[in-house]
Amino acid sequence: MASSPGTISRLLVDWRDGDATALDRLVPLVYRELRRLAGYYMRRQRADHTLQTSALINEAYLRLIDHKNMRWENRAHFYAVAAQAMRRILVDHARSRGYAKRGGGALKVSSDEAVIGAQERGAELIALDDALKDLAAIDPRKSQIVELRYFGGLSVEETAEVIGVSAVTIMREWRSAKGWLLKAISKGKQ
Amino acid sequence: MTPRRWKQIDELAQAALGRAGDERAGFLDQACAGDESLRREVESQIAYQQQASKFLEEPAFKHAAELIAGRRSQAGQVGGAEETSLVTGTQFGPYEILSRLGAGGMGEVYRARDTRLRREVAIKVLRAAFSSNAEGLRRFEQEARAAGALNHPNILAIFDIGSHDNAPYVVSELLEGETLGKIISASTLKQGKAIDYARQIAHGIAAAHEKGIVHRDLKPENIFITRDGRAKVLDFGLAKLTQVQRPGMAQTEATMIPSDSETESGVILGTTGYMSPEQVRGERVDHRSDIFSFGAVLYEMLSGKRAFRRDTVIETMGAILTEEPPRPSETNSEVSPALERIIQHCLEKRPEQRFQSASDLAFQLESLSVVSGASKAEAAVTSMPAKRHLWPMLLLGLAFLTVGAVAGILLYSNLRKATQPSYKRLTFSRGTIWNARFAPDGQTLLYSARWNGNPLDVFSTRAGKADSRPLKLDNADLLAISVSNELAVLRNRQYLSQYISRGTLARMPIDGGAPRDILEDVQEADWSPDGTKLAVVRWVNGQNHLEYPIGKMLHKTAGYISHPRISPKGDLVAFMDHQVKGDSRGWVAVVDLTGKKTVLSGEWSGEEGLAWSPAGDEIWFTAGQAGDASAIYSVTLSGRERLVMRMTIPLILHDISRDGRVLITSYNDSQNLIGRPPGETKDRDLSWLDLGRLSDLSPSGKEVLFTYWGEGSGINYAVYLRRTDGTPAIRLGDGTWPRLSPDGKWVLATLFTPPQLALLPTGAGETRTLERGPIDEYSNGACWFPDGRQVVFQGREPGHDWRCYAQSIEGGPPRPITIEGTTGTSQGILVSPDGRRVIVSDAQHQRSFYPVEGGEPQPILHLEGEDEIIGWSSERRSLYIARTQEMPIRVYRFDPATGRKELLKEVIPADAAGIFWPNSILMTPDGKGYVYSIRRVLSDLYLVDGLK
Q: Which domains does chain A have, with CATH numbers?
């Protein structure tokens, strides 16, 4: 399918209007563009240069969307799609590398081992993805906040715009969700 | 877990987190009411949430960019390399390897002979895996240098640091004996022996602390007991230099400080079982963290058990944060109560409640080991006050408030025996200081202030002079002074809300002349070190942009940016990054000239004031945590934070001179309530607590309601009722925007966490809450209908904009009465006396009458933006409106039909000094009684010398 700006814009509208399959068609398109842009940036920039997700998503948005026919609220939807695409990209990557979960929870380290290192980010990512699915089952909004903030790289204010609550609420729920996730990841499934 | 159960847990956890630590238990007792499993879940959520402060804060993409671009992740490569192994006889620089002694955390340890000095030494050779890892190398070097700077009988002596075939090594004295870990794993120690070791360890730590070195990883394995019974503290592998760099040393020290943070998210340094609570939380750590770890070691020496030991790291961390270990005497009856108290005092969760220095701790242990007989030993400990502040007290005569009280200032510094900073007060007038800067000569000081109610102006003074010269700039704020003596000033600064302002940036010579305008919509600015360029923070389409030079955007945010300061080298701009407009919570960050932003500090609330250290290696800033007066902290470019100075009153840091002197203001923020009940002829001071915001006045004018929002209030603030006859105020409960019911029996208040409307009884009775229905957030206060049975409030459902709802207090869900995009006014939603219309506002601040039972809204014409509607007059056609952002405060009677305004009242406080926004006024419907509140910020400028 051609990823012309019109296609993506239409899919976004379809998705907003309740067509769940539109999302399945959207994510690969956004995925491809994000991947292409990321590769481009990585080649151009110095190795230590931090790439900002939000900048990348913004650029993808500018390239992918038919702006004349889009209303502002679709930008929020695009962010939501992009964050979801980013999550799939990262988690698929980690799974394809075969970062298996270790028994009893990915971060379980015996207390004698002392230092928690920055080890096996891939396994952590898979554990986080699983925990986020569990969180979505009992509190979908907090799960989405984490997706937007962590995978989408959105600021608190931007997340507030997408979800449609105040920034203060986002801050509070973000903290709460992180606590829940840390516990879920540390202890394995709740 | 069901959604409902989780919601219950989450809301209780958030509400508990909003309370001070010592109130939490009581709150949970009440809220969980015997449901133990609920309580455990809530406590666990709280503990994890506290641990998770840095968790996920770095967006996934930082790591993802590498993955997506097909690069190999760095993780996983570490640790796979071959072990270094040296055979006997190997020459290692001037050292000859004799035998292998063991393996430490980072390398192999050998017994060796120094061929030059003909003595035996120990050599630690860095493991190959680490030597190919930049961070490992840095940590190794840091360890060696930190320990090499110490010379104490209870600290392992370091002789040499070197490198052989690219393998770094450190040479130390060779000890014969065993680690404390080995000794206590065999058996518990006799009390006498334990005290003897503990005393020596404490002396060793005290010596390190005096040099500004915090060990950060004290544990039995890092303490060595020699054959002749001497305790030696080893392995300053994680020692963090808290020492201030002296100008001459800056070069060498800079090379050993890691260039990126060692407390990177996900990496927690220290050994879990012995970490202090602040280490577990990833917060700033000072010498008192070692005192906690020491307490855990001493505990284990005596009881034979770890003070905090659980099956997993995370559970151990949870125990450190929330649990008290069982008394050592439960397993070892020999342990005296005095010693137990010393251990307890070390293991206090809050650093300020522990021993404040290792030398005091050593002293206490000495007294136990010297004094024979438990009773005397006990006396030595029990005579110590529970919360003893051992820091030197410095009394300064400070004229605060109207009474000129003398305030005691408690000084804090990292090094107890460091030279005392000296304080010189520079201003002696009453009012508010906005900004202060050193001129390039280092002697002239400029500051902007509003004195005695006069307009904002810039003043010039010199240290040691009692008077200041005004520059006579009408309504201008000082932003920066260039090296060539040019000022950057902000003319006509207008506040849109707290912390959010804009004005016209202008430049002018320091010795006078007219300012020349440069740029509009500017919030703040700073000069480049050479004085040719400006960095500015300005507003563009509702976003805050940081530009340097003007026109080149380096960073933008939908929150706001404050305190941009260019580094002495001109290569970085430091600033405070705030995520939410009007909320001073934020991070200290730097951005380089290509726009690459790095967050340096942890998250702080109340961030105000920032400056670079003269060497450009640290950024000092003022910030506070909830319930905590602000203090000065510093953070290095690698993200190490430390406390520089704390006082018992709030401070703002303004500037640091090239020779390290510091300009600070101390300030006092207060809100006064003043009222005149109907029938009286004189105003009465109704102030109660420091920061009470006027909320409601009863129609009789006899009761006033206010919201307390000072440091002593919780996350939901607190509602107070005070009678205008002057009897003491009564605290009705948590909440904000309180409104009195028509019969005076209930107060309707708004809670934020969890969001709730509450009915607080003014007399006997129980607090009730209203059904929330789909409402997710409340704002701007709720009001009563005249029948006292219905209320109206501003609320929001998930995914929707604000609108107004009506709800019966007798039960049932709320129902919307206005369209989305409507809010209350500054005084909430006003209900007409007949209950048929409400006054609401839209996003453009257009106020309208809105029919409750449906129909077209009717805009209120002839109102200006600054006119606030404060209530209905008893003459039903008219409203009271007020102007509170200027002095005097004026109240008008306003007829919305004709637009006629009639001046009714002017109030001006006798003392105009320091009056600050926001203020408010309310009238009784008959116009005879009134109450107003005035916020006052009074500040004094100090020049501080000797801060490190």
A: 1-81 (no CATH), 97-190 (1.10.10.10)
